[in-house]
Amino acid sequence: MASRHYRHDLLEEDFAIYAELLSDLDAKTLDAAYKQALKTCKFFPTAAEVLAHVERADSVAEELSAESAWARALKWCIANGNVPGTPRPIGEPAIEVAIRAAGGANYIEAANDEQRMWARKTFLDIYLKYRTAPNLAALGSTEQARAFLQEAAAEALALSGKDLRMPVLRD
Predict the structure, then answer these.
(1) Are 127 and 98 in contact (CB under 8 A)?
(2) Which of 58, 86, 114, 145 sits at a 20 to 30 Å CA gap from 50?
(3) How far, CA to CA in Å, does 104 sit from each of 73, 97, 123, 130, 166?
């Protein structure tokens, strides 16, 4: 079929390799990614090119999820930003972490348009990083995971404006 279109003969071993590399995908996802690869590849698509389309779709889905989370967080911050005491938690750890990194519920609720734009940017960035954290096991080493977490934590602290350096004690 497609191999004829590309004038490329596939051997039985080729099919086995494709099947192994693409076995994690359900049939519907594989079909859609394969069709996209056929539309964009000049030569017969490799498994990596097919997977690239899946990753792109996953990335778009994550961005849409983050935007939806921001809308829920903003609504929650407006409702709970100036409530005395500790407002009830939103119930989603990724959103709660991102709200704190973006300045907290009080800040987001009281922010002007420009401040809220920056709070949104921070929120989305931290939310996406937090959502990536469960996938750290896929990293090649513990050092890579540690470096990723340290970078995300440092960025969150820098964006929150909190100075967590140890105070210098004087005699």
Answers:
(1) yes
(2) 145
(3) 10, 9, 10, 16, 23
pLDDT in tens, the chain (171 residues): 455 555 566 677 777 787 787 788 888 888 888 888 888 888 878 788 888 888 888 788 888 999 999 999 999 988 887 666 666 777 788 888 888 889 888 899 999 999 999 999 999 999 988 887 755 545 555 666 667 666 766 666 666 555 544 444 454
Q: Determine the angle formed by the axes of helices 47-80 and 113-132, rounding to 10 degrees.
A: 130
Q: In whole angstroms, what separates CA 118 from the centre of its chain?
A: 18
Sign of CA dihedral 22, 28, 31, 36: negative
Residue type, 154: A
